[in-house]
Write a structure and sequence with these properties.
With 680 residues, this protein is an alpha+beta fold. 63% of the residues lie in helices and 12% in strands. Among the domains are: 219 residues, Serine Threonine Protein Phosphatase 5, Tetratricopeptide repeat, CATH 1.25.40.10; 137 residues, Acid Proteases (Cathepsin D, subunit A, domain 1, Beta Barrel).
Length: 680
């Protein structure tokens, strides 16, 4: 459960704005300021409230509103000053507002790390307004964070005495039992929550975690699916992954059944892809992800497909799919970073570094961009450039051990031994627990502590012996030590366990000592050949051919209209590269439903969608089984039905992205679509 204080404050303010029990300010500036803040126009609201304070500097109500905005803006100095004055000036008779001014001040103290003062204010808030269950909820949360579960439970029971149907209180009781691994006892609370609020996803997702703790995987899976079906609950998603680790066949079968029951919802195919990816069943995962993408071309789905291909070592296919993700959402630089890493793995280092330049320009304060670029420069002999990037990482994140190791190696390469030694000692100081991605073994070796280096490496492998990456690290370490046979042995173990980063392997100067050996070349060739046989059998390069389709259109009011058939019904759609979704009017949808071009089972649910003008509207979501135009056929296309009788049929980016590269030839009035056609 998340901290709820700030939300409680704003909910309370919404209530207080209309409460009539106490005499509260009625001035124009105050009321306009409150109204603006309630409508999320904070700057406008602050302007009015500052005018109010200029006339009435002792208006505690205005001060607490300003403090609430300060909290939201993380301006805690101003927030604390305003909250202190608010507590001073709000009339003592107005218990509700004084209580919440104290709550606001408690939140500020908490964010400043002054938890004792925060607790004092929470106690005062309860004393001011002892019948307000939100006060107890906030204090219970602080007790929970302090691991004082007994006192937290007392507050939750008090909430229940005030409001017997309080869902948050029962959730809190269940959570406190769960965190103490009292899973059986927690089930009672979560089960009651489910009865109180059957459409509240957290009741199911928390109960799923308790079932999981009891190894009741079937019951946990049922609750996971229920929570996911309500709102895609994040906690349920991660519980699904845990079940996949412990009882894969159970969650797999439950998802398959759900997919049959709810065939128009792509999320179940996506989830099946996720659990197969989790178990490193990449070919099957890709198949499910592709089925999901056919129904809803989501960037995250293509990102996951790319990840699967990357883990299989097929970097070209991975690049193709990450490009598709970027096409769908060019604002998410996670995809840009992923593409840069893939370019490096595909032996395209210059392009990778150039893309990291772009990534860093977008987020210059994130240390990870500099580290990856420095690592690539390190492995392409740009020693000075690598030192500069590693030094930037150390400035931004002084506790990142790998940056010191990388810089130390670069200093050593330049003969700057004292600087290198200083960095190696820093690595050992920071990296004290041997685990995946540890690096202290290299620092021990660089400092001449060979036995410590070997011991540390062995402890890493013992913790996770199935990980190919750890065995690869051991190969690098022993190669640095000059022990060729040991290095080759660990390299083969890494390849046996699925390590497929061949481009990095060939670029990695840690392995320079063995790269010219015939055993090395034979081993790499062997596993490269094996990799080629592992790559998904539906490899697009051998089953598809590049094709161009020309589709005529007519111009009407500046837009392209194209003939199409929707589930066999002849219609026209507007080819709209600015819209994201497919949408049609309720007139068209009603006609299709009445004439059996749509069925009740084609109705998926509701969602907000964006138009080409940038407006966001709510619509019913339906599944179009077939969309045909210009010889192209698309199946299972999601569309939003808008509450507008004259809205045109729009074909947006979710479908356009499935077609391929699109050109609009206004002179010939044709759409030219470049796509890959399946070879029969």
């Amino acid at each position: 459960m998340k901290r709820v204080l700030q939300l409680s404050i704003f909910l309370f303010f919404s209530f207080c704005a209309f409460a009539q029990n106490e005499k509260r300010p009625k001035s124009y500036n105050y009321n306009r300021g409150v109204e603006a803040i309630q409508n999320n126009n904070t700057e406008e609201g602050l302007s009015y409230l500052k005018k109010e304070l200029a006339e009435h500097p002792d208006n505690g109500y205005a001060l607490v509103w300003i403090a609430s905005v300060d909290i939201r803006k993380e301006d805690y100095g101003s927030a604390l000053s305003n909250a202190i004055k608010a507590v001073k000036y709000i009339p003592k008779k107005d218990k509700e507002y004084r209580s919440f001014a104290l709550l606001a001040r408690a939140e500020i103290y908490n964010r400043l790390g002054q938890r004792d003062k925060a607790l004092e204010d929470l106690n005062l808030a309860i004393k001011e307004d002892p019948d307000n269950y939100d006060n107890y909820q906030t204090r219970a949360q602080q007790f929970y964070e302090d691991r004082n579960y007994e006192l937290a439970n007392k507050d939750y029971h008090k909430m229940i005495s005030i409001d017997p149907g309080n869902v948050v209180a029962y959730m809190g009781l269940g959570r406190n039992l769960q965190i103490q691994e009292l899973y059986k006892e927690s089930l009672e609370s979560f089960s009651y929550v489910v009865k109180l609020a059957p459409e509240y996803s957290s009741g199911y997702s928390f109960r799923a975690d308790s079932y999981f703790g009891l190894k009741m995987y079937s019951e946990a899976s049922d609750d996971v699916l229920k929570a996911l079906s309500i709102d895609g609950d994040n906690r349920a998603f991660y519980c699904m992954l845990s079940i996949a680790d412990s009882a894969f066949n159970i969650i797999k079968k439950k998802l398959e059944i759900q997919e049959i029951k709810d065939p128009n919802n792509d999320y179940w195919k996506y989830s099946l892809g996720v659990i197969h990816e989790r178990k490193q069943k990449y070919r099957k995962a890709i198949d499910y992800f592709k089925q999901s993408a056919l129904m809803d071309a989501s960037p995250i789905t293509y990102y996951r497909i790319s990840n699967c291909y990357e883990n299989m070592g097929d970097f070209e296919a991975a690049l193709s799919n990450i490009d598709q993700a970027i096409k769908l959402d060019s604002t998410d630089y996670t995809y840009i970073q992923e593409k840069a890493d893939l370019l490096y793995e595909a032996s395209r280092s210059k392009e990778a570094i150039a893309l990291y330049d772009q990534f860093i320009n977008n987020d210059p304060e994130y240390f990870g961009g500099y580290y990856r670029r420095g690592f690539m420069k390190d492995n392409t002999n740009d020693t000075e450039g690598a030192i500069e990037d590693y030094s930037t990482v150390i400035m931004l994140k002084p506790d990142y051990a790998y940056a010191y190791l990388g810089r130390g190696d670069m200093y050593e390469k330049l003969g700057k031994h004292e600087l290198a030694e200083k960095d190696y000692y820093k690595v050992i100081e920071l990296d004290t627990i041997p685990e995946d991605n540890s690096c202290a073994q290299y620092a021990f070796f660089a400092l001449g502590e060979l036995d410590k280096a070997k011991s540390y490496m062995n402890r890493i492998i013992e913790k996770n012996p199935k990980d190919g990456g750890n065995n690869y690290d051991a190969a690098c370490l022993y190669c640095r030590m000059g022990q060729k046979e040991q290095s080759l042995s660990y390299l083969e173990k890494s390849l046996e366990k699925g390590y497929r980063r061949f481009a990095h392997l060939m670029n990695d100067d840690d392995l320079d000592l063995i790269k010219d050996l015939p055993q090395f070349k034979e081993m790499v060739d062997k596993y490269k050949s094996l990799h080629e046989s592992e790559v998904d059998v539906d490899d697009e390069s051998c089953k598809y051919e590049e094709t161009i389709s020309e589709i005529p259109f007519t111009k009407e009011n500046g837009v392209c209209k194209v003939k199409c058939k929707i589930n066999g019904l002849p219609l026209h759609f507007i080819f709209d590269t600015g819209a994201y979704d497919v949408s049609l009017s309720n007139v068209e949808a009603t006609f299709m439903m009445k004439n059996e071009f749509l069925k009740a089972t084609d109705v998926v649910g509701k969602q907000n969608f964006s138009t080409a003008s940038g407006d966001v509207m709510e619509g019913t979501v339906i599944n179009l089984k077939n969309v045909e135009f210009g010889g192209l056929n698309l199946t299972n296309v999601k569309a939003s039905v808008v509450k507008n009788q004259v809205a045109p049929l729009l074909l947006g980016q979710t479908v356009l992205s499935r077609l391929g590269r699109i050109e609009i030839d206004n002179a010939k009035q044709v759409l030219r679509i470049h796509y890959k056609k399946l070879i029969k």
